[in-house]
Amino acid sequence: xxxxxxxxxxxxxxxxxxxxxxxxSVAMAGEATQFVDPPSTLxxxxxxxxxxxxxxxxxxxxxxxxxxxxxxxxxxxxDVRSEARHAAREHKFNEHYVGA
Length: 100
Hints:
By secondary structure, this protein is mostly helical. It is built from four helices and no strands. It has helices at residues 6-26, 44-57, 63-68, 77-90.
């Protein structure tokens, strides 16, 4: 087999390096679900006025209501632990957790 020239070897190495780099970046091409924001129907001033009104009423939206509420339960911690131990001893196969 004929020996490759220095330029040919360098070109071959560059092509191989580019191929490896492209193969690694293909996996991160994009999000699984692309979200497109709908066009706004309010002006900036209207949004700011709405925010100021909600802040003065103490109503900043649904997201803050979740953290402020305590969890309500009818079972104590020992009941839950006992149930978990029992389930671990039973060790039944649950078909709901197997792929489609």
